[in-house]
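Whiteboard transcription, Tuesday session. T.W. wrote the structure tokens on the left side:
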């Protein structure tokens, strides 16, 4: 008979078990929720998923409610095994438990050995695009010639009002009611959360996640490429899948999801360009970041870019969107406060970009993203925030800083028309905080821009001394106050 398997809260789908009568250990350790203030809806989703899994498994599951993982193992007198945990901290813990066998990782497509072999063949920095091409070949995905490479016009941001039907809502049940009751009690006992409570918006079971994936493939994927790089005040999800938390909780196995997306092109309604972009996220980005997390240790050289030494201001840390007048930032912060989610573009260009311009400490930003988003995880965060948003040193990996001004946000969104600031202006009462902040970033980092032709050209364009001194004085005065 197989050994009892410990399922961590991000290993909850059927692909983390070997057979249909395997005994399971689930641990609900309160320390996870007490250590640092987590978004209330993230705490709800994790607890709900864990308890739903225990209910599905019935007598096969032993659910222990403890203060810490260690307490749970102190109580157990039988051998237990676990699949490779998904964070360094959990791995350290697993290795410290006498007799706990650690099995290879599940929930990812590329094996560590395959990644290492690929990485060793690379000359120069590791690049996502090279890895993605390798993964397509290695797993024989999208190998047939492109019949219909789409040349569709990307939408103007202002077209972007509800282009696709929203995902069907998940329906809460008695388990969710009990979770809400427990979280209210913990909050009354002094456990701190950020964000607002609200109906559960993301799948907590394999069945719910499968249903959302099926709906996405049929109704939303066909428009995915057209809306992937824009933002809209009218629709915070656009044609994104909203499935990242389902992959992270382990509810969905990415391998069949990639195959299903491929079928949506071959036999279904989705154009190849849309499917290719979606698969690039799942088979490319997600796998690349996971492997990097274990393959290279991200290191901050100093504090990333010079001057990235400011603490996160309280209004940002506490998701106080009402304190903000800048329309894009207020809207994105409110979306995070109310839903614990926003898609890739606002994360990078509204949240990460602002933090980069203002010199906020990368490590605090990583921690904030991780606690405030339903899908926030250590392994995505390290490389994404440190490498992309903050362009800190991630050894051996190609990174670029994502700094843009208000005119770029205006091009890809419908925010600026309703804002009290003007995206073209860097100076004066109407100066857009992103445009002034962008110029401040260029001037403060001028010595490092030689490697980035786009930013170097922007600096030359905006380097008139009188203008520069006025912008620096204005933006240094604005500092990290809510814009
Ligand atoms: C500053 C910053 C922080 C981020 N933090 C996280 C995080 O903690 N966890 C997280 O999963 N993603 C993170 N991302 C990546 C990306 O924003 C989310 O994966 C995506 O928005 C999830 O929404 P979705 O499921 O609708 O994605 P879709 O656009 O529908 O993409 C499909 C799937 O592909 C995968 N994927 C796509 N892009 C990425 C990516 N860049 N990195 C990893 N997986 C990707 C996800 O599993 C996603 O569900 C971050 C991005 C930025 C810029
Ligand atoms: S003008 Fe500036 S602050 Fe206002 S919405 Fe546009 S980019 Fe954001």
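and on the right, the sequence the group agreed on:
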């Amino acid at each position: 008979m197989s050994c009892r398997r410990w399922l961590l809260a991000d290993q909850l789908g059927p692909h983390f078990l070997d057979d249909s009568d395997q005994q399971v250990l689930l641990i609900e350790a309160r320390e996870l929720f007490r250590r640092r203030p987590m978004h209330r809806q993230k705490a709800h989703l994790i607890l709900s998923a864990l308890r739903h899994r225990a209910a599905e498994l019935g007598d096969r599951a032993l659910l222990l409610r403890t203060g810490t993982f260690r307490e749970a193992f102190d109580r157990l007198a039988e051998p237990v095994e676990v699949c490779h945990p998904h964070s360094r901290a959990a791995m350290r813990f697993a290795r410290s438990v006498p007799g706990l066998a650690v099995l290879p990782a599940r929930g990812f497509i590329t094996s560590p050995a395959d990644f290492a072999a690929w990485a060793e063949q690379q000359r120069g920095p590791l690049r996502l695009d090279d890895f993605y091409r390798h993964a397509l070949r290695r797993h024989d995905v999208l190998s047939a010639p492109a019949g219909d490479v789409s040349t569709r016009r990307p939408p103007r941001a202002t077209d972007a009002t509800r282009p696709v039907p929203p995902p069907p809502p998940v329906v809460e049940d008695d388990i969710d009611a009990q979770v809400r009751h427990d979280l209210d009690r913990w909050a009354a006992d002094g456990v701190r959360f950020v964000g607002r409570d609200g109906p559960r918006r993301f799948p907590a079971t394999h069945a719910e996640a499968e249903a959302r994936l099926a709906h996405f493939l049929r109704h939303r994927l066909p428009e995915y490429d057209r809306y992937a790089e824009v933002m809209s005040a009218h629709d915070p999800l656009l044609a994104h899948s909203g499935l990242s938390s389902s992959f992270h909780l382990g509810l969905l196995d990415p391998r069949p999801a990639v195959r299903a997306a491929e079928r949506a092109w071959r036999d279904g309604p989705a154009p190849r360009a849309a499917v290719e972009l979606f698969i690039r996220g799942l088979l490319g980005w997600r796998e690349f970041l996971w492997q990097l997390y274990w393959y290279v240790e991200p290191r901050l050289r100093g504090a990333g870019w010079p001057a990235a030494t400011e603490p996160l201001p309280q209004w940002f840390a506490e998701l106080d969107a009402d304190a903000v007048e800048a329309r894009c930032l207020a809207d994105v912060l409110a979306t995070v406060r109310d839903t614990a989610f926003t898609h890739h573009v606002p994360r990078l260009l509204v949240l990460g970009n602002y933090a980069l311009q203002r010199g906020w400490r990368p490590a605090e930003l990583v921690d904030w993203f991780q606690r405030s988003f339903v899908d926030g995880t250590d392994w995505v965060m390290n490389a994404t925030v440190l490498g992309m948003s903050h362009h800190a040193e991630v050894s051996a990996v190609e990174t670029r800083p994502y700094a843009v001004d208000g005119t770029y946000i205006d091009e890809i969104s419908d925010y600026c028309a309703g804002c009290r600031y003007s995206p073209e202006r860097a100076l004066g009462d109407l100066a857009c905080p992103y445009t002034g902040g962008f110029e401040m970033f260029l001037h403060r980092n001028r010595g490092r821009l030689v490697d980035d032709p786009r930013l170097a050209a922007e600096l030359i364009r905006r380097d008139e001394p009188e203008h520069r001194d006025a912008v620096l004085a204005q933006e240094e005065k604005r500092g990290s106050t809510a814009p």
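Someone added at the bottom: The radius of gyration is 23 Å.
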